[in-house]
Amino acid sequence: MATIRKRGNGSYEIKVSCGYDVQGNQKSQYKTWKPEPGMTPKQIEKELNRQAVLFEEACKKGQIVTSIKFETFANQWFEEYAKINLRNTSYERMLQLKDRVYPAIGHLKLDKVTARHIQQFINDLFLNGKSFKNGKPISRKTVVHHLSFISNVFTYAIKMDMLCDNPCRRVTVPKGEVKEKEIYSITELEQIFKKLASEPLKYRLFIMLAVYSGFRRGEMLGLEWKDIDFEHNVVTIRRTSNYTSKKGTYTDTTKTKKSQRSSKFPSLIMEMLREYQIEQNLERERLGDKWIDHDRLFVKWNGEPMNNGTPYFWFGEFCEKNDFRFCDIHSLRHLHASLLINAGVDVVSVSGDMGHSCVGTTMNVYSHMFQEAKARNCEAITAALDFGNKNEDKKDQQAS
């Protein structure tokens, strides 16, 4: 049975008897709980009793960690879970996040980290967090990544029967300013395509294929010639080409299973692919033994997979040279989605085309675009059914 004692600092000590040791001494486990500011006496009593019950149940199951610190256990999580189960890009991103998380809560014992500790860290990160590279304020998305990392560690502790509660579920990331995704207009895109006509075929194909396909950059860089079905004008995504500082450029699976998909293309793109294949074959013959064959479409001068940053930097220089505003490579994927939505394509079809894991992802990312398209539908229906005004217009015409 748990016993509760109030302390002088406003916190409460919860004590649970856990039997006796071999010398006959009673063993007890202790937990400190402090009410959140603004809680009423009734709320305090209710939550305190709940904490006591949860703590007692955890003691009975052996789910109490009295000595291990968050940083120590997080490092175990990296070795036992993250390194084995996460994609390399996700794993390395998590490693970077610990540089902010550990100084904030790493010194605390795992069972002593409260939602309040985490909320204070998240709030400070949101308001004052700066990039280690350029000193600019970090994005809300980066703040979410930090919370996800902490939550993943606690989830693993629960899975390993070390804890029974994840305090992150009570933490809220402040709402930031929603920035409209920067995409090119049709007029801008027309000008870009005109200027691309005089650029190297490799980069011209990359940019145009990105617009026509909506493929992610890593998916396009992972394309191999065996993925191109010239007979049926179909391109299939089967893998990605990624980069991390530790592994360099490497081949990986797609982001999700649904990212493995096939898309049909117009003859314009397929003819460019044929032309580019001929160009690449000629270069392979010219270089002879210097050519390193990977069967990739987008390669370096010697046939090795193209660096992930190359399309981004090339497109940036192209826009600067031609006095175009620069929307990064990923914006071309958003442009593709917007064209589908504006054409009235349903959300399920858009989701499948984009390779999203579920329709909900598509709705979250492009909700404003669907809302705008829906508003236009409403206006079209209203105009079509506006019989009253049509009749009045007809009378006016007859009268004249």
Tell me what you see in this structure.
The chain has 400 residues and is mainly α. It has 14 helices and 8 strands. It has helices at residues 41-61, 70-85, 88-106, 115-128, 140-159, 186-196, 201-213, 217-221, 267-287, 310-321, 329-342, 347-354, 359-384, 387-399, and strands spanning 2-6, 12-20, 26-33, 228-229, 234-236, 240-244, 248-252, 262-264. It has a 3-stranded antiparallel β-sheet with strand order 1-2-3, covered by helices on one side. A hairpin with a 4-residue loop joins strand 4 and strand 5 (234-236). The longest helix is centred in the last third of the chain and has 26 residues, at 359-384. The chain is elongated and about 85 Å long. The model has no long low-confidence stretch (mean pLDDT 88).
Short account of what is shown:
By secondary structure, this protein is mainly α. It has 14 helices and 8 strands.
Class from helix and strand fractions: mainly alpha
Order of helices and strands: EEEHHHHHHHHEEEEEHHHHHH
Largest sheet data: 3 strands, antiparallel
Q: What is the CA-CA span between the terminal residues?
A: 94 Å
Average pLDDT, all residues:
88
Keywords:
8 strands, mainly alpha, three-stranded antiparallel sheet, 53% helix, elongated, 400 residues
Secondary structure blueprint with pairings:
Layout: E1 2-6, E2 12-20, E3 26-33, H1 41-61, H2 70-85, H3 88-106, H4 115-128, H5 140-159, H6 186-196, H7 201-213, H8 217-221, E4 228-229, E5 234-236, E6 240-244, E7 248-252, E8 262-264, H9 267-287, H10 310-321, H11 329-342, H12 347-354, H13 359-384, H14 387-399
Antiparallel strand pairs: 1-2, 2-3, 4-5, 5-8, 6-7
Helix pairs in contact: 2-3, 2-5, 3-5, 4-5, 7-9, 7-11, 11-13, 12-13
